């Protein structure tokens, strides 16, 4: 250990720092991130019926296709139908992939439902129809007409390019007075991919700017902030390469948001670790003339807190590997790799960079030998601790009452976002679907598919006849079997995402009970299963995270009671943050519900990162208890760490709030909950509640660990010396 510390802080430590930065640059520029293996199954819950249906669709020869619904609107569309039919015929020659996996036949609007009868899937009487089976169906009110193309959507980027080109061609082809829009599954996939066009670069730029600004404010130095920002910035890019390469190696999928969330986590956690190390280094410079000796001591004393802090985050995010969503498992593994890289760069590169630059890097507040160290100063945080020490029981009660009142919003939570509520800025696919619902059955834009393994056309037709009688089903269109797989396309009357639509899906599934190898997927069937999967993840993964973090703290503190108290305090913080966030969502942002996956992701990051600050405080309390006892030690620890932890908390809150630059509601909601939670944890729980509890319990806080009168565990003098 001593040899490693000497290597990282010695006279030639700068060589190691430069070498690490060069290797990092080579990894980013020479190796680069791994390419995603696009799969529509990565965002679906494994083992659920809708996912089994999609797996069956993957066996079709043109499985990389989906429906793009072209919607034409005008004051009176009827006069333009012949010309629009010609437009669709021309476009079909370029874009349509044929009557394939997604059920090309256009949905019937009225009249008998069922499958396979004469003319099934073709244009109704009076409807313009182009060659190649591309019907153009007008609405009864005469203001709209739609047509369905089966387009290439092998990946999100392919769907984006195809739909963008289709929209451009439509703009130049429709007659004057007619508006053309594209919606349907392919368009939603394309617009979701467009959300992330350049998003990671924007997110990185905004995140780095926020971190730079807060570091300048924290250090009040025009120079110092450049060093940790450079180190963490390189770590962020290396983490993206390492994480995606590991994911590709082990075969775990990831989606477009993974690298963005990873970047936010690496910047947040890495900067927190840097703040702690630099704070200890600056303190040691006030006690030692030799800056290399000061850094060696700072590294020894900060490394344990940083390593255990990183370990709790890693353990927490790895619990996501038990999620039923493959993309969530990918996020958990990616974040674990990212935290490892962040901690390695802060502990392995930052010390050498700082000692190489000398004391002047802190200018204008250069620390000098003989100045008062933080634990001895009467800082604002020490004064807060002294106030808490006068009546700790009162502060515990009042703080818990405040947190409980903030958590009241949990009783009002409503989960499950409708498709039109998924985006902060409404894309064309959603606005077109809303307009389509004004003239056609609401479920036309996102039909439900019944997929069955059969070679018999008659069986598919019988299914369509049966399902067409289910209440809430507007039309049931049979698609002839291809490669032994038949389909029935169901258009529901209810609006997608509504309770009525989900009720219809349940009735369809009940009707199909006992049917072999038959699955209901697509539309609200997939949405319902995704929501059920999110509930399952919360019930399984959340308790596991708590147990994992609890065990990690027990290992660090060699205590039972202290970890329970610290974990309980973080759970209280999460509950209060989510409760307050509900009012923010509904009263300020006008969100009607929370995304079903948001609570789990917010919980993982808030619990894992929130425990960090308790680790920083409590490990310093152990150190200070060496000569002053636990009750006085926690006050000295609060005075010494209050500034750096508060700065780290504000920075982390601001960094996660940056997720709001991405126009997805789920990411904005995650950012809001974590932002509020981190601020609560930093300014209330860690500053008031935990010190008050420690003051009340004294040496009993460490039970069953025994701490002597001077704060030393009777069996571990060497351990405290290392602190």
UniProtKB/TrEMBL annotation:
The keyword Glycoprotein does not apply. GO terms for cellular component: plasma membrane. Residues 97-111 have a biased composition (Low complexity). Residues 239-356, 567-695 form the SSD domain. It is found in: Cell membrane. Residues 96-135 are annotated as: Disordered. PROSITE patterns: SSD. The chain crosses the membrane at residues 12-32, 198-217, 224-247, 259-281, 302-325, 331-358, 388-410, 539-557, 564-585, 597-616, 637-662, 668-697. The keyword Membrane applies. Keywords: Cell membrane, Membrane, Transmembrane, Transmembrane helix. It is a multi-pass membrane protein. Pfam families: MMPL. Residues 112-133 have a biased composition (Gly residues). Its main location: membrane. Belongs to the resistance-nodulation-cell division (RND) (TC 2.A.6) family. MmpL subfamily. This is MMPL family transporter. It comes from Ornithinimicrobium avium. The lineage of its organism: Bacteria, Bacillati, Actinomycetota, Actinomycetes, Micrococcales.
């Amino acid at each position: 250990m001593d040899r490693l510390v000497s290597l990282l802080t010695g006279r030639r430590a700068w060589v190691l720092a430069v070498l690490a930065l060069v290797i990092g640059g080579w990894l980013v520029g020479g190796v680069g991130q791994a390419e995603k293996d696009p799969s529509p199954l990565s965002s679906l819950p494994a083992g659920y019926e809708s996912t089994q249906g999609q797996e069956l669709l993957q066996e079709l020869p043109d499985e990389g296709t989906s429906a793009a619904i072209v919607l034409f609107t005008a004051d009176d569309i009827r006069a333009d139908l012949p010309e629009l039919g010609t437009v669709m015929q021309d476009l079909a020659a370029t874009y349509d992939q044929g009557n394939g996996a997604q059920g090309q036949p256009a949905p019937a609007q009225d009249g008998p439902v069922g499958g396979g009868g004469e003319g099934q899937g073709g244009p109704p009487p009076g409807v313009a129809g182009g060659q190649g089976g591309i019907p153009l169906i007008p609405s009864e009110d005469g203001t709209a007409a739609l047509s369905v193309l089966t387009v290439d959507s092998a990946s999100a980027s392919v769907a984006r390019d195809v739909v963008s080109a289709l929209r451009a061609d439509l703009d130049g082809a429709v007659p004057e007075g007619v508006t053309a829009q594209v919606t349907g599954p392919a368009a939603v996939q394309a617009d979701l991919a467009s959300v992330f066009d350049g998003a990671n670069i924007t997110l990185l730029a905004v995140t780095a700017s926020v971190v730079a600004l807060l570091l300048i404010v924290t250090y009040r130095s025009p120079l110092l902030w450049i060093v940790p920002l450079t180190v963490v910035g390189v770590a962020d890019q290396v983490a993206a390469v390492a994480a995606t390469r590991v994911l590709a190696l082990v075969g775990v999928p990831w989606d477009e948001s993974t690298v963005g969330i990873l970047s936010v986590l690496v910047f947040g956690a890495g900067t927190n670790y840097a703040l702690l190390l630099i704070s200890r280094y600056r303190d040691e410079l006030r006690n030692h003339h030799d800056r290399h000796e000061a850094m060696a001591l700072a590294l020894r004393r900060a490394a344990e807190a940083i390593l255990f802090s990183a370990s709790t985050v890693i353990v927490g995010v790895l619990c996501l590997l038990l999620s039923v969503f493959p993309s969530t498992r990918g996020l958990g593994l990616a974040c674990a790799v990212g935290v490892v890289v962040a901690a390695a760069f802060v502990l392995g590169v930052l010390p050498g960079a700082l000692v190489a630059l000398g004391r002047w890097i802190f200018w204008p507040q250069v620390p000098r030998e003989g100045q008062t160290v933080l634990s001895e100063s009467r800082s604002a945080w020490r004064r807060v601790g002294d106030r808490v020490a006068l009546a700790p029981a009162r502060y515990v009660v009042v703080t818990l009452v405040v947190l409980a009142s903030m958590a009241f919003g949990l009783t009002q939570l409503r989960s499950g976002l409708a498709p039109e509520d998924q985006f902060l800025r409404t894309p064309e696919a959603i606005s077109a679907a809303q307009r389509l619902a004004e003239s056609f059955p609401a479920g036309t834009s996102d039909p439900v598919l019944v997929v069955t393994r059969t070679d018999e056309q008659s069986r598919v037709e019988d299914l369509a006849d049966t399902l067409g009688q289910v209440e809430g089903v507007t039309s049931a269109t049979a698609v002839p079997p291809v490669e032994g797989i038949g389909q029935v396309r169901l258009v529901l009357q209810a609006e997608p995402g509504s309770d009525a639509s989900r009720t219809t899906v349940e009735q369809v599934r009940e009707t199909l009970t006992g049917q072999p190898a038959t699955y209901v997927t697509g539309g609200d069937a997939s949405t319902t299963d995704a929501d059920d999967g999110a509930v399952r993840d919360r019930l399984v993964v959340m308790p596991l995270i708590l147990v994992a973090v609890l065990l990690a703290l027990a290992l660090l503190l060699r205590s039972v009671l202290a970890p329970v108290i610290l974990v309980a305090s973080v759970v209280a913080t999460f509950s209060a943050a989510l409760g307050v966030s509900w009012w923010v969502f509904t009263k300020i942002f006008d969100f009607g519900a929370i995304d079903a996956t948001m609570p789990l992701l917010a919980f993982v990051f808030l619990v894992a990162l929130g425990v960090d600050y308790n680790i920083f405080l409590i490990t310093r309390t152990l150190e200070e208890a060496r000569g002053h006892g636990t009750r006085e030690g926690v006050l000295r620890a609060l005075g010494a760490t209050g500034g750096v932890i508060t700065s780290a908390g504000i920075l982390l809150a601001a960094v996660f709030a940056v997720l709001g630059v991405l126009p997805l509601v789920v990411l904005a909601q995650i950012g809001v909950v974590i932002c509020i939670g981190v601020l609560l944890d930093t300014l209330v729980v860690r500053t008031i509640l935990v010190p008050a509890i420690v003051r009340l319990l004294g040496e009993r806080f460490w039970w069953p660990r025994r701490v002597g009168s001077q704060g030393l565990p009777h069996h571990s003098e060497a351990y405290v010396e290392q602190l």
